[in-house]
Amino acid sequence: MADLRIYNVVILGLGFLFIFTAFTTCGNIEQTIVKSLDNDTFTGSGYHSLGIIYGIFSFSNLLAPTVVAIIGPQFTMFFSGILYSGYVAVFITPSTWSFYFTSVLIGIGAAMLWTAQGHFLVENSDASTINRNTGMFWALLQCSMLFGNLYIYFDWNGKMEISDRSRKTIFIGLLVTSVLGTLSFLALRKTLPPEEEMLNEEEGQPLLSSRMMYKQRANSAVQDAKSEFSLELSFYSGVYGTCIGATTEFGAAAKGLIGISGIVLGIGEIVGGGVFGLLCKNNRFRRTSVVFLGMVVHFVAFYLIYLNIPDDAPVVLKTSTLNKPYLTPSISIALLSSFLLGLGDSCFNTQLYSILGHVYAEQSAPAFAIFKFIQSIFAAVAFFYSGYLLLTWQLLIMVILGFTGTLCFFMVERIQNFSVDLQQEH
What we know:
- It contains 14 helices and no strands.
- The protein starts with a helix and ends with a helix.
- Helix content is 78%, strand content 0%.
- By secondary structure, the protein is mainly α.
- Residues 194-224 have low confidence and may be disordered.
């Protein structure tokens, strides 16, 4: 049984690796692709597409548990993978209506996919293996950022313009990758974990009925913290790569740098996830310390980006940037900023998942559903304003809300420590 569970976790991770190699790469380059289209009838925006995805994702979380319960996690992930593949396929021969229609579909598919993933991972884990299995899955998922951006780099390196042939080659390859990930879900095997280890709907009801006041307050503060960090998710996953690709001073290397930036960002994610997610053992000390470190790391990254990237980089359409930054744009500083963005994000995510799982150890399913709901709402808002606000204002918003989110996290930790002390007294 143990070997079968490990097999399932590895196959699950590989499926997500392939699908998100395709989807993460799309998100990182789609605004650049849209800007390069020699098609007057196409009026879509990559930022609007991502905003639609995350907006639909938010509200689809309300229906996802029902779908998973009816058809099971395996087939839910398979059908969701088909929707992801359809979104990638649109870029081969893009049209405005299909671009936005598949954005709606993939938003629905994302909610189904992640809800089913969480359910399936719990089914194949117990108290002694959940950390190991989550670590294995996370490591495989983060590799998708590396592989996808390596693919982009080798295809775009040295190209000033993106031809139709180049675009089709890229997205046919990404489509094949996504289809492979979707098919891999059919190789998952059914397991029957002990009843006492399984989470069911009845166990999740205490969370929704708010049985304990301290858990209400802790959950509220966690959601506040995640709402601030979701804006940064939108920035590094869809906006920053576009900014690099639009920077005039990078010349012919600009498009290839989008891929390199994603690779370096992925390395930062993996380094941070490994160090802070797996190696640190002093939980009560490390959570606040690591989150504070993540805030500082992101603030340094934002300052470097402010100095190094032109202010109009997120909003230019058919041309490269016209504004001049404070420094002469440097490739080294741009890539250092990418690494810091990934490192800071891993600091936040490892600790947010840690404390939420700790507070709701027995009711994790509904807690994480609410968590994803809040995250995707704020990500959608960020993508919608990204195409209109200058870089300086976007960075300022993230600094203010990042600081607020860190304070919210500290509040959660204090509430949790107080509740533990109160329980010990009784």
